[in-house]
Amino acid sequence: MHQPPLRGRPVLEGKRVLLVDPYQPTRDARAGVLRNHDIELDTASSLQAARCLWRPRFYDWVLLDVRGYLPGEALAFYEQIRDKSPGEHVAFFVGPPTYLSRTYPDQSSEVASETQQWGETVKRFLAAA
User: Fold this and answer.
1) N or C: which end of the chain has fewer CB within 10 A?
2) Count of H helices and E strands in the chain?
3) How would you classify the pairing of strands 109-110 and 89-93?
4) How far apart are CA 13 and CA 83, in angstroms?
5) How far apart are CA 97 and CA 65, in angstroms?
6) What is the pLDDT of residues 63-78, one digit of tens each?
């Protein structure tokens, strides 16, 4: 069972995240939210750049915006991660920043209805790492 953090310590302290988002405005906004939670963050604007940054068991989470790619391209990168680092967590952005999915393309779920809740949503996902 995942223990809650000690009082005064951020839930995401020390987590390493790779954010892959081809759209600079959303990438910058997401990066800002994640950095505000003291996350060690690397960003990539393409799957090619993400492949250069990614190493097995190096990131706690890979957050992948699949909207700018053909589904097969994003899934190929996910399969690479899954095959080489099966315990690594991956979450997919499948719509506006308020939609996340851990089971893309099979399912997507609305997890927040307002943009200010997006930071809390990411915090909950990453806390599960």
Assistant:
1) N
2) 4, 6
3) unpaired
4) 27
5) 9
6) 998 887 876 888 889 8
CATH, range 16-127: 3.40.50.2300
Q: Three-class SS of residue 60?
A: coil
Query: Domain spans of the chain?
Result: 16-127
b (16+ CB within 10 A) / e for 10-45: ebbeebebbbbbbeeebbebbbebbeebebebbbbe
64: exposed, middle or buried (Cβ count in 10 Å: 0-12, 13-18, 19+) = buried
- Please, how many CA atoms are within 13 Å of residue 9, restricted to the half-sphere of its CB? 10
Say if residues 14 and 40 touch (Cβ distance below 8 Å): yes
Burial of 63 (0-12, 13-18, 19+ CB in 10 A): buried
Whether this prediction's pTM lies above 0.90 is answered by no
